[in-house]
Design goal:
The protein has about 375 residues and is of the alpha/beta class. A six-stranded mixed β-sheet has the order 2-4-1-5-6-7, sandwiched between helices. Helix 4 runs antiparallel to helix 5. The longest helix has about 30 residues. The chain is flat.
């Protein structure tokens, strides 16, 4: 999973990126400090993995990972080349979802490129630039579909009709993720175009330390907007996250509890990401390694096996499955099997979060 961290200059993007990844990206109080996208990989916290490691005496533990990309600050006019313009936009096109950092704090010592704090205006500024970029992409695709449709190609005629409706939607200032296709064929075309405004969004409301537990009026405005467009949102203090990044887990927890919160910003961001993208993790365990594998909710057993290796999917025979909770309650795999809690599942089995699976295959 690759998440792109975006936002106007000076909203706390690079500070947040540093905190999440401990990558030490440069951050400063002036626009365009981030010129090339910084990339950092973080592990997904999963309390099930240490338990399984101890149970199986595993040599190594491999958690799921998320790749964060810190993308240069966007300004009004980026779609026409202002600031870093198209360089910024091309980096967004490569990510699975967008983490949109929004400034929800007042601080006269930190310059705001628009001269005042207004999170909704800031969100609309970025959305508008992404819409302009999408309209350029859509125009070229529409011309091609219209040209092909003139020869009588029914599929291209249908595509042109869809793109015309979508073009009107974008011109009205609406993001593509708020557009409703009429059928599965239209949904497939929409996904194929890879529009920037069709990517899922998580809004990170960046606040001061004093507003971290309860939020503020700016945060509530962002939450209202996110709810209307079925996006996710969470409150974070990027500065605090940076301060606790080097602490061990116990110190971090005590620090956060003093502030009235019980999870780090990274934990809340990961939870929001998994929820937004409909992701779950299944587990494999043995003496050599314990590992978490990220899949989309609703994935059937052969598809989950394919995450490990394409041969597993191609030669899938069956899956031997026990839930983590059943294994833990039983004490070990043998006991779980004696209780009938280890199930043999076929090709139609839909994998559940926390399933511990042994795949049987033959190529």
């Amino acid at each position: 999973m690759k998440l792109g961290i975006v936002g106007l200059p000076n909203v706390g993007k690079s500070t947040l990126f540093n905190a999440l990844t401990k990558a030490g990206a440069e951050s400063a109080n002036y626009p365009f400090c981030t010129i090339d996208p910084n990339v950092g990989v973080v592990t997904v916290p999963d309390e099930r993995l240490p338990y399984l490691r101890d149970l199986y005496q595993s040599e190594k533990v491999l958690p799921a990972v998320i790749e964060f990309v810190d993308i240069a600050g966007l300004v009004r006019g980026a779609s026409k080349g202002e600031g870093l313009g198209n360089q910024f936009l091309s980096h967004i096109r490569e990510v699975d979802a967008i983490v949109h950092v929004v400034r929800c704090f007042e601080d006269e010592n930190v310059v705001h490129v628009e001269g005042s704090v207004d999170p909704i205006r800031d969100i609309e500024t970025i959305n508008l630039e992404l819409i302009f970029s999408d309209l350029d992409v859509l125009e070229r695709r529409l011309q091609k579909a219209q040209k092909g449709g003139k020869s009588g190609d029914k599929a291209l005629q249908a595509e042109a009709a869809l793109l015309t409706r979508l073009q009107k939607h974008l011109e009205d200032g609406q993001c593509a993720r708020l557009f409703t296709p009429d059928n599965e064929e239209e949904a497939a075309i929409l996904a194929d175009i890879n529009l920037l405004t069709n990517k899922p969004v998580i809004y990170a409301a960046n606040v001061t330390e004093t507003d971290l537990a309860e939020g503020n009026e700016y945060v509530r405005r962002v939450e209202k907007l996110a709810q209307a467009e079925h996006s996710e949102t969470f409150t974070i203090c990027a500065q605090i996250e940076q301060e606790i990044a080097e602490l061990d887990d116990e110190e971090k927890l005590l620090f956060l509890e003093d502030l009235g919160v019980h999870e780090s910003g990274l934990d809340r961001l990961i939870a929001a990401s998994y929820k937004l993208l409909g992701l779950i993790s299944y587990l494999t365990a043995g003496p050599k390694e314990v590992r978490a594998w990220t899949i989309t909710k609703g994935t059937k057993a052969p598809g989950a096996a394919g995450k490990i290796h394409s041969d597993f999917e191609r030669g899938f025979i069956r899956a031997e499955v026990v839930s983590f909770e059943d294994l833990k309650a039983s004490g070990n795999y043998t006991a779980a099997k004696e209780k009938g809690l280890v199930r043999v599942e076929g090709k139609e089995y839909v994998v559940q979060d926390g399933d511990i699976i042994l795949f049987r295959f033959n190529v």
